[in-house]
Amino acid sequence: MSAILPGATIGILGGGQLGRMMAMAARSLGYRIHVMDPDPSCPARFVVDACFEGSWDDARAAADLARGSDVVTLEIEQISLDCLRAAERFAPVRPGIEMMRIIQNRILQKNWLRDEGFPIGEYRAIQDETEVAPSLAALGGKCFVKSASGGYDGRSQVKTGFDEQTPDVWKLLGGRPCIAEKALDLDQEISVMVARSPRGETKSFPSARNHHENQILVWSVIPSAVPQEIEQKAQQIACAIADRFELEGLLAVELFLTRSGELLVNELAPRPHNSYHASERACVTSQFEQAIRAVCDLPLGDVAVVQPAAISNLLGDLWLGHEPRFDQALTVPGVTLHLYEKHTPRKGRKMGHLSAIGATPDEAVARVLEAQALL
Ligand code: ADP
Ligand code: MG
After folding, report:
1. Is 184 annotated as a binding residue?
2. 366 with 270, same domain?
3. What integer best gives the mean pLDDT of the chain?
4. Has residue 116 been placed in a domain?
5. How many helices (H) does the chain have, and how many strands (E)?
6. Structure pTM?
7. In this predicted model, what pLDDT tens digit does every residue of 255-310 receive, in sequence order?
8. What angle do CA 15, 286, 54 make, to 5 degrees?
9. For residue 55, what are the domain limits?
10. Pocket of ligand 1 (CB under 6 A)
11. Ligand positioned closest to the Cα atom of 154
């Protein structure tokens, strides 16, 4: 197999912030980039050579993108299989379609993890309304119910058993198949980003520690500073999943560390991940450059941590009162601002992030939160 060398064109399905940051890394390496996105003024728009307008199930637009590309990758898992198949007629699609088919459906994904023997929490697949009550009863107590497809940042999820109310889960999730998970008592959340190239080279980044509020990532830091034996276990799990899938590209493995000391896989994301934005400052190679190296079958970059770094997300909420005071935030030593050129701030919409370096992971987190508080 031969590498796709700089000068070639990379097609990216999805032009959100992940596509934009991948495109910026690809440009630095000397590639040309085409993206496909439903929004013609998507964040990647201004850093790419061409933008094809098309929804996630527009197979014609995906084929147009692929026709002019030497390889096609993606920044979002909700691309329809028809789109991926249409693209594959013209260029290799990485990660591959079979892996995408399993990951883009939470039921298939959880069943796959279970069948392959990876540690996961208790769950029930729900195919129709009659299965809701028995599934919740079997799990007992607090649950997270999640749509089988289409959710992100905690959207398309309903919590049950947390208070007196009993939400109509089936209706709230739009009357579509979903998955009920027992709510776990979490000590920490971490993630491991693995890259694997078509020639089979695999490298996994040191784990990131992730702090969520209301099911949205608030801040994240690399390295996570979990005990060595947990780090080893997390690395083993992530690499085994990548191997089993014969991954070509990136795979983020989100993990739960429970109060009783279990390490469980939460979910998989076959693309760059919010929890590795800090890799741009923490690691020798960023997740975005690594994605490009992996899909182009170049040698993978060094994943070592150079210095601890943390990020905190800037949600649209911040813009709703007054314009954020970026000049204030940037007075904090080691802090940098990243904006995604999204034009309309909305509640819960990721508009950008702050990053900070520190002598220790704790210091990096403290600095990024100090900067955030000044906004
Ligand atoms: P998304 O696709 O929105 O990231 P996740 O399944 O990762 O969906 O859920 C988002 C967050 O919600 C998790 O990172 C975690 O903080 C919380 N969460 C989800 N499922 C559970 C669970 N079974 N137990 C405890 N917390 C959970
Ligand atoms: Mg998640």
Report:
1. yes
2. yes
3. 97
4. no
5. 13, 17
6. 0.98
7. 999 999 999 999 999 999 999 999 999 999 999 999 999 999 999 999 999 999 99
8. 10
9. 9-93
10. 121, 144, 146, 151-154, 181, 183-184, 186, 189, 212, 215, 254, 266-267
11. 1
